[in-house]
Amino acid sequence: MKTLSLPFKIKKKKTTASRQDIVHFYEEATDDYFFWSKDLNMHFGYFIWGKTNPFKRDSMLNEMNEQIYQRLQLSGNHRIVADLGCGMGGTIRHFLKRDRLLSMIGVTLSPFQVREGNRMLRPYKGVILEEDYTQTSIASDSMDGVIGIESLCHSGHSKECLREGYRILKKGGKMVIADAFLKKTPDKLCSVSHYSYQSLCKDWSLDGLGVINEVEENLKRIGFSTIKVEEVSLRVAPSVFHVPFAIVGFLLKNLFKENPIKPQSWNNLKASFYSLISGLHLKDFGYYIITATK
Predict the structure, then answer these.
(1) Which of 8, 20, 131, 221 yields a CA-CA distance of 20 to 30 A from 27?
(2) Considering only CA atoms, which of 82, 95, 90 is closest in space to residue 148?
(3) Which H/E stretch holds residue 273?
């Protein structure tokens, strides 16, 4: 295993009930993600005509990883990136396979993801820590880049997680966020959007989705010098349309194997359906990539 010099001291932190909900969600739903992505990418994809195959999910999911990597604009011979809410390390492995000069630190609340993710990271210069991404033990001004792909929603895209990304970034470094956001406050959503929003937050253990203009304003107040907000909803849509087929496939697979479906898997399936419904309401929801420079 390659060694990785880390700019922090590992320290344990107490968890709260809400954190336990998140841990339970990911540990119970891991089989679902194996079915969704053989590379264990726990996110939606990015479609480009002539480059990605709309019928091959991982082609689009890995292209999302690539889009995030490109926006970091990394340089130098010794660079290190933090993945806040890294899951099983799918994005970390993608980055490290394409960039041999890169080292990475992932953060997750799930002990299972830490154990299994680090096992898969043995050939690479990466490590996953069991920590809260709103308060990590990573040293200030130590990261060349910070990413959060469909993970910061678990805190509602809170000021705390954005502020932590700013703290650990070096001057000139970039924080790149890819996620679904609200285009208006929850009280202004139409009835269908409001019901779908509440349901997916409940079933996916989310604090909520940030309102895009409020998140942009928070990034400015925290101190980021340049902020670029790109709506990529139509790029993401082809992978979202895989959801109903993935749900049916997952159910049939377990039916034929006579495997009982875990309660959290049912919740995950329901939330996936509501994410599809939400994605059809582009006046209320949008998928964005935000690049913020310190």
Answers:
(1) 8
(2) 82
(3) helix 263-279
CA-wise closest residue to 150 among 216, 61, 214, 23: 61
pLDDT digits (tens, 9 = 90+) for 197-208: 888 787 677 888
Give CA–CA dist 142/6, Å, rounded. 10
| Beta strands at 126-130 and 169-182: parallel, antiparallel or unpaired | unpaired
The whole-model pTM stands at 0.87
Token code pair at residue 58: 């991982």
DSSP-assigned beta bridge partners for residue 288: 179, 231
Strands 169-182 vs 143-149: parallel, antiparallel or unpaired: parallel
Element counts in the chain: helices (H) and strands (E): 11, 7
CA 183, chain centre distance (Å): 19
Structure tokens at 218: 């928070």
The torsion angles phi and psi of 37, rounded to 5 degrees, stand at -150, 120
pLDDT of residue 268: 58
How many residues would you count in the chain?
294
**Helix, strand, coil distribution of the chain in percent, nearest 5:** 45, 20, 35
**What is the tens place of the pLDDT at every residue in 14-25?**
333 356 665 655
End-to-end CA separation in angstroms for the chain? 33
Q: Where are the beta strands (DSSP E) in 79-207?
A: 79-84, 102-108, 126-130, 143-149, 169-182
The CATH architecture annotation of domain 17-182+209-232+286-293 reads: 3-Layer(aba) Sandwich (3.40)
DSSP H or E segment with residue 23? helix 17-28
Whole-number Å distance between alpha carbons of 270 and 251: 12
Mean pLDDT of 180-192: 92
Smallest CA-to-CA distance from 42 within 55, 28, 30 is with 30
